[in-house]
Amino acid sequence: MSTAVDDELWSAVGDPTRRRMLDLLLGDGGGTATSLSEHLPVTRQAVAKHLAVLDRVGLVHAMPAGRERRYRVDEAQLARAVAQFATVGAAWDARLRRIKRIAETIQQQQDRSGDAG
């Protein structure tokens, strides 16, 4: 994935409504903008816009279903997204551990200099 796609992916799943939509689609095996709007505090038009964002980053795909489109989660793309998030999370955990060690070292040095005074 390129950086631009990664940024779009993070932006897409950063929205709580879109995360809820993914949950609903995964739980129900798919859905339409109308069926999703019945479970969300937004209009059908807003749901359609959110679905377009998820579709653009490849997290969902649409198939014609009568007058509407039925959306399904692309589980392979979702798995790639989860792996990317886990990698970023692990990198931040390592950074935070380093910061903690630095802070502990500084605190120990301050405690020693305070004991000497």
Compact summary:
The protein has one domain: Orthogonal Bundle (Arc Repressor Mutant, subunit A), CATH 1.10.10. It has five helices and two strands; from the N terminus they run H-H-H-H-E-E-H. The chain has helices at 3-14, 16-28, 33-37, 44-56, 75-116, and strands spanning 60-65, 68-73.
Report the strand count. 2
The CATH homologous superfamily is named: Winged helix-like DNA-binding domain superfamily/Winged helix DNA-binding domain
- The H/E string reads HHHHEEH
Structural class: mainly alpha
Instruction: From the 3D structure, determine the CATH topology.
Output: Arc Repressor Mutant, subunit A
Number of domains: 1
Q: Show unreliable segments.
A: 1-5
Helix content: over 70%
Mean pLDDT: 90
Please outline the major beta sheet.
2 strands, antiparallel
The whole-angstrom Rg is: 22 Å
For the termini, the CA-CA separation is: 56 Å
**Biggest sheet strand line-up:** 1-2
* SS strand fraction: 5-15%
Oligomer: single chain
What count of helical segments does DSSP give? 5
CATH architecture: Orthogonal Bundle
Shape: elongated
- CATH C-level class: Mainly Alpha
Task: Itemize the secondary structure elements and their pairings.
Blueprint: H1 3-14, H2 16-28, H3 33-37, H4 44-56, E1 60-65, E2 68-73, H5 75-116
Salient structural properties:
117 residues; mainly alpha; Arc Repressor Mutant, subunit A; two-stranded antiparallel sheet; 5 helices; 2 strands; 73% helix; disordered N terminus
Description:
- By secondary structure, the protein is mostly helical.
- The protein has one domain (3-116): Orthogonal Bundle (Arc Repressor Mutant, subunit A), CATH 1.10.10.10.
- The chain is 73% helix and 10% strand.
- The protein contains five helices and two strands, in the order H-H-H-H-E-E-H.
- Strands 1-2 form a two-stranded antiparallel sheet.
- Strand 1 and strand 2 (68-73) form a beta hairpin.
- It is elongated, with a radius of gyration of 22 Å.
- The model is unreliable at 1-5 (pLDDT under 50).
